[in-house]
Amino acid sequence: MSDSAASATAMPPFHMAFPVADLEATRSFYLDVLGCGLGREAERWIDFDFFGHQISAHLRPDEVARAQTNEVDGDQVPVRHFGAILEWDAWHALAERLKAAETAFIIEPHIRFKGQVGEQATMFFTDPSGNALEFKAFKDPARVFAR
């Protein structure tokens, strides 16, 4: 097995911290809507198990701001965003759960770059503080970094 293949199978989880305006609304969204696990918490922050990664929501309403956009494949994509790459079926299940929860999508679930090397399922929406999230899936996971 090559070094890159070995590291892909044992990829370490990442950590990311981000500002939120309301901890209780954030807790509800990440736990109930996205299905994340709850980690440690204190008066001004909460850790979540975000699809195997650790994200920390910090109460800082003064730092919450709407992301500017760039055009990508005909869509206005929020430049500042985060999310996860899911397996194909898990992405579709999440999209259906979000639709059932009447999520207001920035970019509706769809297939981007259809027929091209980077073909992917993608969707964008915001958390209660306006942080943009993207979830995507590749029919062929080996194409995540394909050029």
TrEMBL record:
Every VOC domain range: 12-138
Recorded superkingdom: Bacteria
Coiled coil location: none
SUPFAM superfamilies reported for this sequence: Glyoxalase/Bleomycin resistance protein/Dihydroxybiphenyl dioxygenase
InterPro entries assigned: Glyas_Bleomycin-R_OHBP_Dase, Glyas_Fos-R_dOase_dom, VOC_core
PROSITE patterns assigned: VOC
Short name of one Pfam family: Glyoxalase
The protein, known as: VOC family protein
Source species of the chain: Aquibaculum arenosum
